[in-house]
Write a structure and sequence with these properties.
CATH class of the largest domain in chain A: Mainly Alpha
Number of helices of chain A: 10
Helix content of chain A: over 70%
Distance between the termini of chain A: 52 Å
Radius of gyration of chain A: 19 Å
CATH architecture of the largest domain in chain A: Orthogonal Bundle
Shape of chain A: elongated
Number of domains of chain A: 2
Oligomer: homotetramer
Order of helices and strands of chain A: HHHHHHHHHH
Largest sheet of chain A: none
CATH superfamily of the largest domain in chain A: Tetracycline Repressor, domain 2
CATH topology of the largest domain in chain A: Tetracycline Repressor, domain 2
DNA sequence: GATGAATGAGTGTTCATTCAT
DNA sequence: TATGAATGAACACTCATTCAT
């Protein structure tokens, strides 16, 4: 692995674990076994490095989201795939996913901020995906009649709650993926 | 309101909005219209002020949790009350609730840290409360048979996801409380 | 003992043990079991308190010096009394004596400084006292012929060295007073 | 001279002149014509810089002490060399020597403190050296019979008193070295 | 690509001191 | 006499960043 890659990975790990402000450039350099100025050779600065990680993470997240496709007649299958995919993403890139899901209010409210843009993109994707599923499922009689927007948001909250929970690796209960899917299935699908 | 109270409220707002590290003592002082040393007259330091807010918040959260009681034969009523209460708590003390729900991984993994202790206390309470509801509800035939521990964790993830979502005040969709309750009811209760 | 007296005694002890700068007003207040503003009721400030202690100490030192008188035909008796008196003074008011003997170079070089004035007073007294003894002793044949000024300074260095040594209470060797006197007697007096 | 060397020399001068607590990092930086953070690039902090100076000073002092050797049949020659060497050391490194000889009681009583360790090392060396001289000199009939330990301490007090006196550069009397040696010779040696 | 030395701007914190009571 | 609350000025120290090589 190149020094640059080590740098980026180390920084991602530290940013995720401690937050942007609590992570110092000297700490990143030491843990990546490089010297501080090298950070500035590869990136404009600490903020730039952070944004690079965030954007790469967001790209990875979205490109995997796009593999979901438009598809299929059974709407709950689509929701199931969405949930499954999130469990996979968290497993494959926990630091980046955590960073996307954990920006602080101040950054999220600042429309110019990259964090806000990324969180907004994720939210928009999830919203339109889930809205589509719900509407089609309700239209075809697969789902119960539910208020669309609030229910979409409940599902997004659930997904984000699970992302945080799994990234923290605190409650390592087995069977979470299945339980989540079944929890949603019973709530949404008619028998 | 005394200067100390203003100080604590301002600090809570800023810590919640920006995070602990991004909030400086001089900023707290300015926004609370006091001078910096007064922080150190009332608290041992920035960390101590932060922990004071956290502990007070945790106390408030838990004391409201305890009002739920052991209560009632209908288990879903209890879950409904739990959800309702969280919506109320977030409305009444959004900063404190957000802080409790948003500690960074490094602090949560450090067992000696107050954040970890508080998050653990919250999690333990929710776990035992929900576990009790589920078990009793399943035993009485009120609920479907579900795997207890995973489902408890799904519900906790949902609650924490909602806390974050509402504290961020980003997706101000109406009808969230009702949608959440109905989402859970359809998932758990037999028709 | 009045609060003021406790304050002064405590301050003297702390100043002597830690130095002026390392001793804080809050520490003085706490150890004297009073509150900080009371210091400012009795004294203009920390510096004023320090100078009060120093001047009182100097007064005490000088008034005891003056008990030595002009006196007697045997000059070594006078030197012996001087040495004995210093041992007594150190025993009776170790903090004050230490403070007089331990001012830092910067203060001693600053002619306006009280420390400089007090040290100068002490030095002048010792110089003229010892010079007188040596001259008379040499004139009468009691002492060997020695160069006056250098020898006076050797004696002063010895006295100040002993003051420091005893105030630090590190080398608690018995028989120091007698050894000092005999050391000087053998050096000065003809057999 | 490198910036680091200038820094160390300037700091030594200021610490010696004003004491550790009265010397600020900004003052050191200004007088050394460097910026404050450079202190922290080369040393862990102000205390670390101070201890570095102290240890270097102690090393220099002790290495010169060790040049005295075990040496020679005439014991007073050895004492004379010891006194001469101290005059030379004070002339060559007055700041460091003063710092070694002027630690405050609080530091000297704290066994963990570097100042205490260094002062103890100096004292032990002088004690054993002088004790050896006195014993041998008394055994061979070169010296009068004197109580060893107290007399050793008188000599140490005299040496330390002279160090302070000369470092303060207040009483610039000529002929001090010779007067000191002759003072001791008359006191110790039989005619 | 890589680094040792260096810095401007700012941080949390402490201090002697004052004020209102 | 006595104090709880408050502050201006300064402190040691750290940070992200740059420069010369």
């Amino acid at each position: 692995m190149s020094k640059k890659d080590t740098l980026v990975k180390t920084a991602a790990r530290l940013f995720a674990a401690q937050g942007f402000d609590a992570t110092t450039t000297i700490q990143i350099a030491r843990e990546a076994r490089i010297t501080e100025p090298l950070i500035y050779y590869h990136f404009k600065g600490k903020e730039d490095l952070f944004l690079h990680i965030l954007e790469k993470g967001s790209d990875g997240y979205l490109s995997r989201m796009k593999t979901l496709g438009e598809g299929g007649p059974v709407q709950f299958k689509r929701i199931e795939k969405l949930i499954t995919l999130h469990f996979d993403i968290v497993r494959d890139m926990p630091d980046e996913t955590y960073l996307i899901a954990s920006a602080c209010p101040a950054r999220l409210r600042d429309e110019g901020d990259v964090c806000a843009r990324i969180a907004e993109t994720q939210r928009k994707f999830l919203t339109s995906y889930l809205r589509d599923c719900l509407k089609k499922g309700m239209a075809s009689g697969e789902f119960w009649k539910v208020p669309v927007e609030p229910t979409v948001n409940v599902l997004i909250a659930l997904i984000n709650g699970l992302i945080r929970q799994r990234c923290l690796r605190l409650e390592q209960v087995r069977g979470m993926k299945k339980a989540t899917i079944e929890f949603c299935r019973r709530s949404l699908c008619k028998p």
